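tool_call predict_complex ligand=zinc ion
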Amino acid sequence: MRVTPVPESEWVVDREDGARPKNDVPELCPVCEQGGAQEWLRGPDRLHGRQELYTLVRCPACSLVWLSNPPKPAEMHLHYTDAYHRLISAGGQNSPERWRERSAALTQWKRSGALLDLGCSSGSFLEFMGSESWKLHGVEMSAEGARTAEKRSKAQVFVGDILNATFPRESFDVITCFDVLEHLYEPRRVMARIGEWLKPGGIFYVLVPNVDSAEARVFGSYWHGLELPRHLFHYSPASLKFLAESAGLREVSLETRRNPAVGTSLRYVGDDVFSAVGIRRTPVAYRGEASLPWRAARKLVRMTILRGLLAMAPLVGGGESIHAIFRKEKSSA
Ligand SMILES: [Zn+2]
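tool_result ok
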């Protein structure tokens, strides 16, 4: 489904503190470098049930949303708890269905060559792609993740920050980046590297949450895709495209898809409802399997109210995740 940028009149207004938005945030847009960014919403880290509020601002030119004053890189580990990592790996890291779909999307454009997976984690996508056709590479921050990835996929994995990797120019036919770009501090610099590392005609396949999605608007600061403060940038189809174009890439296909994780956003709404009557529930990061009555209530909401709201999704911004494929121009430097 193709989508267009959201008109200003439809932006999410969800302000925890009830304050008026400030008109001028003295920050230039990190993607398009325009001024005039406005405060968009405030919210806490609901996953861990923490109180500190974070401020998101939005660029009026390219619609990028970003975290104003993010935690310093040296402090970021405080926000990636063991509970978080457990939740992520439990969330279906080893889902072959997911990899099959992505592999099919990719092989429409490239069937062989050198493939680099940015933020390859423990290598389940690389392992899935393992065949005579592909020479596999990865970049992974966690040394343990990288070791596992190398073992299971036979890929060469660079351990560390993407910006510290030193691949020769025009090394790769394909670069993939799934659920990673939104965590990076310097998206423009990373995108420039991607542009350098791709061969002319090479493909960049990226997945990010869609901040213009119906769910993001319906839930505001309760939208689970915000992942404050771990997600530093929140892309829309328009801002993602702008970012890719800044590195000499052109859109080949861009679509948004529904994501069945709506239950987490509902849970965050529920947490606040309970807290308003003095009941503090265990934050999502630390809870076990949801209790039966809660699951039933959630299902009911999903089948009634949400179905109605989400039926409007194509009109108001589309599905929760953006699946985009870009190609490096043959003539680009
Ligand atoms: Zn911008």
